[in-house]
Design a protein that fits this description.
It is globular and about 75 Å long. Helix 1 crosses helix 16. The protein is about 40% helix and about 10% strand. The chain contains 21 helices and 15 strands. A four-stranded parallel sheet has the order 10-9-12-13, sandwiched between helices. The chain has three domains: about 5-105 and about 185-215, no CATH class; about 115-170, Alpha-Beta Plaits (2-Layer Sandwich); about 220-485, 3-Layer(aba) Sandwich (Fe-only Hydrogenase (Larger Subunit), Chain L, domain 3), CATH 3.40.950. Strand 3 and strand 4 (about 145) form a beta hairpin. By secondary structure, it is an alpha/beta fold. It has helices at about 5-25, 30-35, 35-40, 55-65, 80-90, 125-130, 155-160, 170-175, 200-205, 220-225, 245-255, 265-285, 295-305, 320-330, 345-350, 360-370, 390-395, 400-405, 425-435, 465-475, 480-485; strands at about 100, 115, 135-140, 145, 165-170, 180-185, 190, 210-215, 230-235, 260-265, 290, 335-340, 360, 415-420, 445-450.
Length: about 500
């Protein structure tokens, strides 16, 4: 499964979001926002993580900046949080790039490299020296020494050392990124190259200091509700496995936040399934060797920035969010739409879709419930207006999309699914190979999910994968199949 952000960094993000929401709902948003770092670390408070209280406050201040929806890179250190809070109230639309790096929190990790530890015994067999193809290892004073100018970081010496004396030092965010979009800047801190970034969120999950941060849109949504606008929530299927309540209780809890209505994005997933199944049949009839799915926003960003050669093999069917937002805007043309998302990539998709106004992740939604003291498992129940199929609700799990498409295919045109369970360097190489050869030798329907485990493994999920999968599966098993719904 994807690495989850350590609990302490998640707790800090959640506490700041809770305080921001309560500050917004108070009679003095700007001043209470300014005081958040001081309220969280008052004078004389124990300093749990950093060298001093001032460093802790500086990091909390930057987390609050991101919580307000602003980029740390573009914000002056001298700007007061009260000024940024006021600026957030005046903001008309979210900033373009969804991620920001908190340089105050970034450790400035040592460069990634292969390193010989003191465990080296200088053994006679010299497996590390004999294995290295680049002549990067020599013996000096009875110990192995690596020449960094010759070393290619292949890791072969790590594998053959009988004493496990050679190790690979990694930078977590850099190691997690499948496309090399994050690296050290001139100041030694992590910097994101947004021309390369596919918004998969792996760096957010990987950093043990919580230095890579999503820019929240919570203030924008609160502002829209407070102004009396009709605001409608659209729930990605993965949310049904996140909180200790039934889906109907969750709908009622979200209504208590001030939303005018709540739609399941699984409703749009049913449109995706029907459209993609028809497209698969048409492509196979015209001699196509394979087709990949197109519902994952992270994968779509990968295609656009790094893998254009596979585009002819990618389904042209739109995502479940696209179709759901289209339905909502058709039924409520004046509504503000808010997508509840498990990942960063959907923020990028929303910026490209005029029918989606804002995106909140599950961490933000959870903080909102806490801020308003809403116990989701104590709420009443209310039904969604449109029923979605079991197959659509199962989109959140790896293999769910392919299974849904398969369920609507005729017997004479079978699908042989290939599952890409999480984008990484190897899976990207595989996709490049399929595109180059024009054939996938192990199947004809390739489901691609940027996150291991599917949307349930997204960086902004709040429940463990195993528990979330069980909870979602119960909901799926209680639902009607897409064929049965079509016959009604």
């Amino acid at each position: 499964m994807a690495i989850n952000t350590p609990k302490q960094t998640s707790h800090l993000k959640r506490e700041i979001l809770v305080r921001l929401i309560r500050s917004f709902l108070s009679d003095n948003f700007e001043e209470k926002t300014r005081l958040i770092p001081f309220d969280m670390r008052p004078k004389g408070h124990e300093v749990p993580y950093r060298c001093c209280i001032y460093k802790e406050r500086a990091i909390l201040r930057d987390r609050t900046v991101a919580g307000l929806g602003f980029s740390i890179e573009d914000t002056q250190d001298s700007t007061l949080l009260s000024e940024l809070a006021h600026k957030a109230l005046d903001r008309k639309e979210p900033e373009e790039n969804p991620l920001t790096v908190l340089t105050t929190a970034c450790k400035g990790c040592v460069p990634s490299r292969i390193y010989v530890t003191d465990l080296c015994q200088g053994c006679v067999a010299r497996p590390c020296v004999n294995t290295c193809k680049f002549g990067a290892i020599s013996i000096q004073n009875g110990k192995s020494v690596i020449d960094p100018e010759k070393c290619k970081n292949c890791g072969m010496c790590v594998q053959v050392c009988p004493y496990q004396a050679i190790t690979k030092i990694i930078v977590p965010c850099e190691s997690a990124c499948p496309v090399g979009a994050i690296a050290k800047g001139e100041d030694g801190h992590a910097k994101i190259d947004f021309d390369k970034c596919i918004s998969c969120g792996k760096c957010v999950s990987a950093c043990p200091f919580g230095a890579v941060h999503e820019k929240s849109q919570i203030i924008d949504v609160l502002k829209a509700i407070k102004s009396g606008k009709k605001v409608i929530a659209m729930l990605a299927p993965a949310i049904m496995g996140q909180l200790p309540c039934t889906p109907k209780q969750l709908r009622e809890a979200i209504m208590k936040l001030g939303f005018a209505d709540v739609y399941e994005v699984a409703q749009g997933a049913d449109v995706t399934t029907k459209t993609e199944a028809a497209e698969f049949v048409e492509r196979m009839e015209h001699g196509a060797e394979f087709m990949t799915t197109s519902c994952c926003a992270g994968y779509n960003e990968l295609i656009a920035k790094h893998l254009p050669e596979i585009k002819p093999f990618v389904s042209t069917t739109k995502t479940p969010l696209y179709y759901t937002a289209e339905i909502v805007k058709k039924e409520h043309p004046d509504a503000i739409t808010v997508f509840f998302s498990p990942c960063v990539a959907k923020r990028r998709e929303a910026l490209q879709n005029p029918n989606v106004d804002y995106v909140l992740n599950y961490e933000e939604v959870g903080a909102w419930f806490i801020a308003l003291n809403i116990q989701v498992d104590s709420c009443g129940e209310s039904s969604f207006k449109a029923e979605a199929s079991a197959e659509a609700r199962n989109y959140a799990q790896t293999g769910g999309v392919a299974k849904a498409v398969q369920s609507l295919l005729p017997e004479e045109i079978p699908a042989h699914p290939v599952i890409i369970d999480g984008l990484n360097k190897q899976s990207i190489r595989d996709l490049k190979k399929y595109a180059k050869n024009g054939v996938c030798d192990i199947g004809n329907l390739i489901e691609v999910m940027a996150c291991q485990g599917g949307c349930l493994g997204g960086n902004a999920t709040v429940n463990s994968y195993k528990a979330a999968s069980k909870q979602l599966s119960n909901y799926v098993n209680e639902s009607k199949h897409i064929k049965d719904l079509s016959e009604e």
